[in-house]
Amino acid sequence: MLYHLLFPLHVEYSFFNVFRYITFRTIYASITALLLCFILGPWLIRELSSHQIGQTIRRDGPERHLAKEGTPTMGGLLIVIAVVIPTLLWANLSNPYIWIAIFVTVGYGAIGFLDDFKKVIRKDPKGLSAKAKFTSQIILAGMAATLIYMDIGIQDKVSIPFFKKLNPRLGILYIPFIILVIVGASNAVNLTDGLDGLAVGPSIIAAGTYMLFAYLTGHVKIANYLQIPYVPGAGELTIFCGAMAGAGIGFLWFNTYPAQVFMGDTGSLSLGAALGVVAVMVKQEIVLVLVGGVFVMEALSVIFQVFSYKTTRKRIFRMAPVHHHFELKGWAEPKIIVRFWIISIILALLAISTLKIR
Ligand code: 57M
Q1: Which residue in 44, 103, 188, 284 has the fewest CB atoms around it within 10 Å?
Q2: pLDDT tens for each residue of 51-63
Q3: In testing the pocket of ligand 1, which one of 193, 253, 254, 316 has its CB within 8 Å of the most ligand atoms?
Q4: How many domains does the chain have?
């Protein structure tokens, strides 16, 4: 909105030219997101607490989680607001990628909200049924995939990290592929969200990485120089990613150990889906496995654990997802969290290196 209101003034006042630049608008989108979190955060936490929107802790988990009983949850509302408002303020709203990113973030936030609402307010420990949750995730991702492939006509070629000449075309299969990326990313972030700051830290790092990818992909000269796909208009997603990184950092202020608030499914589902849809639109889909490596590791730990337990009745980890394993080994919570962040940073750097090593 600010872009549309203020940029036209550059004809009379050259200062307003600065609104043309994606870099300038990204910085201010991040700052706006941070400020929104700092301003709204304490109020939201107070409201959630006063309405007793607190977490119920499962009795079969690591014992030290019992002390977290009653911590306000659904803080993801803050994340969604702090991603969407700065994007609406600073991005070019005639850009379709921006609207698809907002649609997916808000849509998955709404699914998470319904789940949290049933669990926390209606006191139904099961929340939304797995079937309802999964079906609605697939429908939303399917709508986004159709828009991306049919309407905007994003190419169905997939970029394989480290191989610049290997770009398989998926044809119509590109639609289920996009659904897989969005739904997979969303659920993987959700599984990771089990320790203070554990999901939001790697989400910030991933948003920062995709901020870079979006900028490069939308810049014809740089994209050609790096021989990565050039997607006209995708550069505007840099602003969305900047808002996401800002919102994540702002939320972390309150979610860092010992957490004053949890994000709930409202936050985890929307953050994961937002990363997934951006990865698709900037044509760096497969490398998300590396950028979001911590989420992948957490999801795989559950898959292996369930498979092993079902087939051999033996557990690979003391408890899955893998962060519980380290908790039960006696590692202090902050140690696990910060080590997972470090792994995320290393993986993000590796992912960025795929721009050159190819
Ligand atoms: C969400 N959420 C937390 C909070 C957060 C298939 C199975 C592996 C699924 C998995 C599961 O349910 N994962 C989804 C994990 C929960 O946090 C809430 O949920 C939101 C995210 N959806 O925002 O609202 C608890 O996590 C802790 N927490 C923090 N800090 C935070 O910032 O400490 C969360 C955010 C909170 C709080 O304690 O209450 C969760 O873990 O429930 N299931 C599991 O993870 C279960 N694992 C399991 O059953 N493993 C078996 C299997 C797979 C064979 C095994 O290994 O044998 C464990 N989860 C729990 N207790 N809580 C089992 C025991």
Answers
A1: 103
A2: 888 888 888 889 9
A3: 193
A4: 1
